[in-house]
Every structure is written in C-alpha cells, then in structure tokens.
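Please produce the structure of this protein holding flavin-adenine dinucleotide.
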Amino acid sequence: MLVRDLGVFALGGAFVSGVTWLLRERQRDRKVPILSGWPRVVVVGAGFGGLRVARGLAGVEADVLVVDRHNYHCFQPLLYQVATAGLEPEEIAQPVRQILRGIPNVRFRMASVENIDLEKRQITTDDGPISYDYLVLASGSTTHFFGIESVAQKAIGLKYLNQAVEIRNHLLECFEKASAEKDSGVRSALLTFVVAGGGPTGVEFAGALAELIRLVLVHDYTGLDVKDARVVLVEASRSILSMVAPSLQKAAIRALRQKGVDVRTGAAVKDFDGETVRLAEGTSIPAHTLVWAAGVRATTVDATPGLPAVRGGRIKVEPTLQVTDHPEVYVIGDLAHFEQDGAPLPMVAPAAIQQGELTAKNLRRQIAGLPLERFIFHDKGTMATIGRNAAVCQIGRLKLTGFPAWVMWLVVHLFQLISLRNRLLVMINWTWDYVFFDRAVRLITRD
Ligand SMILES: Cc1cc2nc3c(=O)[nH]c(=O)nc-3n(C[C@H](O)[C@H](O)[C@H](O)COP(=O)(O)OP(=O)(O)OC[C@H]3O[C@@H](n4cnc5c(N)ncnc54)[C@H](O)[C@@H]3O)c2cc1C
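Below is the modeled complex.
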C-alpha cells in the first residue's frame, strides 16, 4: 500500500514539475524583446474593436501599444444585469493585461487620451505624450443626453461598469427608503422607476428590473406593498426596438407588459429634477429614478482638427477604415461613421469586432507594402431579451420570440464573454437565478 502511494506521489510530482517547466519555458518564449526599429502601432480603446486589432497583430514585427482609460475590458451587453443585481461587475469584465498577456509584441498602458496631433503623429494622454507610426482609434461611444442639462445632472446612464453599480445601489436604496417612508406619495415616487429609451438596452433593463421587483424584492420587503412599484419605459418614437420587424416590436411590447412594465411610446423626456420626470407632451411622472438608455454619441476624441466628424460625433472613414488624407490613422467601432447600403452601420459589437479584424489585417498589409482590403459588414442578426423565457431574435428572415429566442440569446451572450472563468461564473449565476428565482448581488455597496 505504502509503496503504491509513494509511486503515485512520485508520478504526480514528476507530472507537476514537468508542467511547471513547460509553462516556464513558454513564459520565457513570450519575453521576446521588442526591436527598436519596429513601427509603433497605438490602439486607443480596449473595447470590442481595439482588442481585435491588438490580438490580430500578434507576431507581427510591430510594437503595439493599447491605451485605455480603464484597466479592464467590459462586456457592455450584460451591464444591465449588473445594474439589476444579477451579476457581479467582475463577471462581465477582465483586466486588459490579462487578456493580452500571451502576446509579446503587444503592451498596455492605462491612460486617458485627451488630444491627437495628426501632424506630429502623437497623442496626448493624462500620463504624457505617446508617438505613433500608425494609430487606431477605437474609443467607442458615451451617453448622449441631447443637451437636456437636468437629465445629464440627475439621471443615471447605463454605459460604464461604475454606472451599473450605481444603479444597483440606487434601486436598492429606494426600496430601503420606501420601507421607512410614511408619506404614501413619496413612497410611491421612490418605487417608480422610469427608463428612457426603447432600444435593446432600455428594453432589457426594464424587463430585468420588473422581474427583480416582482420575483425577488417582493420577498425581501414584506412590510412594503412591492406590487405598487412601477417600471415605466418611455420611448420618443412610435415603437420600441426600431431595428427589428414590426411583428417582433409588438411581441416585445406584449412581453414587457406581461411582466408589468408600463410601456409608453411617442413619449420624450423633457426634464428631471430628481423627484419628477416631465414628458414633452405635458404629463409628469413622480419618480426618484430616471435611467437613461436613450442615446449614445461618439467619444470626445472627435474634437481633433483633421478628423472628419459627422452626425453624432462619429468620424467618417474610407472603405479601408482609414481617415481621408491620413492613411496611418484607422477609426473603428462606435466611433467610426461607415456607410453601407446607404446608411451608417449601427453602433453594435459585431461591427466593432469585424472592423477590428480587418484593421489588423490591413495594418499587416500596409506594413508589408501590400494593397489594403475594403470593409464589408456581415450582419448576423439582432436580439434582445425581455427577462425570463422572453426575447426577440431576428436573423435574416428568421424571426423568433419567447422561449426559443431566449435560449438563443443566452447561448450567444455566454459564448461571447471574454474568458472561460467569466462564462462559468455567469452560467452558475443564471442557473441559480432561474431555478431559485433569486438575484445573488442585492448589495448596497456605498455609504
Ligand atoms: C448597456 C449596453 C448594452 C449593449 N448591448 C449590446 C448588445 O446586446 N449587442 C451589441 O451588439 N451591442 C451592444 N451594445 C453596443 C456595444 O457594446 C458597442 O457597440 C461596442 O462596445 C462598441 O465597441 P468599440 O470597440 O467601438 O467601443 P467600446 O467597446 O465601447 O470600447 C471603447 C474603449 O475605449 C476606452 N476609451 C474611451 N475613451 C477613451 C479615452 N479618451 N482614452 C482612453 N480610452 C478611452 C473605453 O474605456 C473603452 O474600453 C451595448 C452597449 C451598451 C452600453
């Protein structure tokens, strides 16, 4: 028995030592020195587009530097689940250094880009200037309040990880305050949540919030009449989810209403003072919460002279994704204005990913002195979930609603998450929520 155990230990030890040696050797291989004569490619933004460029340049004789104001990549399509207490922030984000760790010619610097000097070929950051031979701008978009100052001051956007956590804290605080509130009018305003914007973000957030209230918080706040809590989704145009077929728009409205969401189309927010949301047609909704999912615009690097900014601050690009008169500058993703079939591409992750892949390919070709390729967007469809067992999905002519669309949404989003760890954690959380009607992260994490 003892001899056999010793044998097993010895074999196990040899195996572990072998694996450790192999890993160390691999690590040594990765530390390839960057040659000073290599061209420098600076990629601004470690989002969907920027990361594709960086990964696509692995092994190229170029010194690639990724610059981002955050040290992590965020999977924005699941932000609303962080906001509604379903997922932890770190389950939908990953450090950029970890993502790029295995690529010897790609480095990362955490800095915010403030300015670009196209003539000097230099970007200015809050951490000093950085020179480039080639520049890729992939800094995405930011919340757009359409100049409504009161909304910009008091509403909460749903674009960044910290905003998602802020929304979660705020929602739960509203319930805590309501449970101690004697005045029924104030209590009702605390328990009224207005969501502006009937695009996928607003629809997904409103559906998930209605379920958080109806299925989970109802058991936490037994002293409150949680059934009185209201989620109101307001959309300025005539319907929600404008990018899908009318039949799917109607199905989405039906599903939202079944979950208790008050859907109001043709209703634009005019003003919000923190206690009342005023709509353009004259009505008011007493509410302490306005979540703004009504618009995004390109990030502020568009203010650079020489970059042709068009509607929404997006930068017009050539078919090769380069900027006119600046073949060393590429713009991709939400920041790029690229027209196909007479219309600009939507601000969606697949467009950024596909543009990132082509940019890496074109940079390789440009460095090698070869002709560049033109970008063609391949639309793989649109989907939005409205909560448990409900979603709409349009892929070419295929239109799905209800449970099949929901399962497809789950699978697609799970596989798009960036690491295996995050996929496993999200899958565990989703299964737990589905089986036990629970949301794991009902924490108020601010003082
Ligand atoms: C809540 C939400 C839900 C969404 N849901 C979906 C969905 O279901 N499906 C879908 O296809 N799309 C969805 N989108 C849109 C999708 O996330 C974007 O289209 C996509 O992220 C664009 O990729 P990008 O690379 O252009 O920019 P991003 O992925 O936004 O990356 C930009 C990066 O640039 C960095 N950055 C910005 N400014 C600076 C600066 N000045 N200096 C340094 N770094 C900077 C940012 O920190 C960020 O890391 C959603 C977006 C949001 C906000």
